[in-house]
Amino acid sequence: MKAVIIAGGFGTRLRPVSCTRPKHLFPIAGKPLLDWTLGRLAKNGVNETIFAVNHMSEAFVKQYGKSAYGMKIRYARELKPLGTGGCVKNAEKIIGRIEDFLLLNGDIISNIDYAHLMKQHAKNRCTATITLHRVNDPSRYGVVELAKQNRIKRFIEKPPRENVPSNMINAGIYALSSKIFGYVPNGRRVSIEREVFPKLAEDNELFGYEFQGLWIDVGQPSDFLEGNRLLLDSELQNGQVAKSAKVKNSAEIINPVAVGAHTKIGDRSRVGPHVTLCDYVAVGKNVHIRNSIVFSGTVISDFSSIEGAIIGEQVSIGKQVKMKDNVMIGDHAIIHDGVKLASGVTVCPHKEVTESTHTTKCLV
Question: Which end of the chain is less crowded, N or C, counting CB atoms within 10 A of the terminal residue's CB?
Answer without folding.
Answer: C
